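step: validate -> pass
step: tokenize input -> pass
step: predict -> running
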Amino acid sequence: MIEVVNVTQHYGIRPVLKGIDLRIERGELAAVVGPNGMGKTTLLGVMGGVLQPQHGHVAIAGTRRRQSVEDESALRRLAVYLPDHPWLPAQRTGREFLLTVGRLYGVDEDRLLEHAERLLALFDLSGQADGPMRSYSSGQQKKLALCTALITEAPILLLDEPFSGGLDPAGILALKRLLRRRVTAQKATVVLTSPVPEIVEEIADRIIVLREGQVIAFDTLEGLRRLSGQNGSLGAILERLLYPETVRKLADYFEGPHS
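step: predict -> pass
step: emit ->
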């Protein structure tokens, strides 16, 4: 379970997050959506412990982040944070890196070797696994980074835009099914960001809607439909909640003399 309590985060004089309060339960997949620059990545970074909020705190399974070296080390084994553009050692092979990460997280060696093989096959990386990562395409590097988060077997995954970065349709399909399986069968907790409403609508249990650094809604798809008065897709709901000015401008444009 993840608790975000009155978190405020700013860079210089510009606040990015403003008094955020959230509670994400064990066995839940929560997706963060909102316009660019509204705090989605910052929120994931605070949850992941890589950013210290100016006010408030994050607690995971009852333990506050960044309170002591010992507690933070334990939390980083419990909750894996994968940024949108993670560092990968270019000279190492994908297989070497994947196995190294698994060993750092104490995964049993026999299970680690078998799981690595299954992940590489699932994401169509078996043919590249023993070559240096500098030779991988951007999409292959994205897949390998996702594999490193999954190989840890951590019960909490914090994933910043996991479906972007050149991930192909097969990779998107594999990741969607795998995350839902982790949540439903293993009671894992997943928090992710995504700019694609269709993906969020398909996989999320609840959806966090951010605007100007504040949570304007955190609910199921049906709850967001009731809140917005819009019975359509998540994309249509977000149009009403987040982009009413853009919708108005489009109407003005199409009604113009040259439309």
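step: describe -> Residues 169-186 form the longest helix (18 residues).
step: cleanup -> pass
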